[in-house]
Amino acid sequence: MQILLVEDDVEAARHVSHGLQEAGYVVQTCVTGPKGLAAASSTRFDLLIVDRMLPQLDGLALIAALRQHSVTTPVLVLSALGTVDDRVEGLRAGGDDYLVKPFALAELLARVEALLRRALGDVHHVGVLKLADLELNVIARRVTRGGREIALTAREFQLLEYLMRRVGQVVTRTMLLEAVWNLHFDPQTNLIDVHISRLRQAIDRGHDVPLLHTIRGAGYVIKDPGSESTSRAP
Which of 11, 128, 134, 220 has the fewest CB atoms in 10 Å of its CB? Predict the structure, then answer.
């Protein structure tokens, strides 16, 4: 799940982004209103988290601009302004929820989950990715194969979700580093190999037909065992 965080307080942004990533979300951060508006207008996100008081373009103006351009992505507003009138103004500007600072990270995560559930509707249908007998529930953060629940770390879950959204496509190390670890360079370590190995053990161990494959010199692919074709991801 892709989340855009627009927050000019660097320390607060780091704290929230880290918490979201630990929960398995992919997070992009912007520190000004115009940059946040540009990112939200050009890229599809599952959720926006927008600070109300932003430099150059305040959060409510940003949200109103998005709504005027028919961007319906759910928005959680963060603000130190917490009166009833402040909250009403934030919701009327187009926000879907309003969280007053300071807040507990656990509450923010709970509100994020609630907004995503509402946006996806029936999580038993829309929020579930399936491949053969492997199922990944995006909202419940639950993975099963053959009806047996599989315990994954937040990073392994994020990696599996990324692969399952690209079934049959070869994804490169660079793609995984950018999407799952938010790294725009190769640290030249076995970071990916270790996580892929653990993920393969988790989902394929004990099953006759493997789903996760390494394509030597190219990357990795998760594919339907009944399909022989494999394509390169764009």
Answer: 11
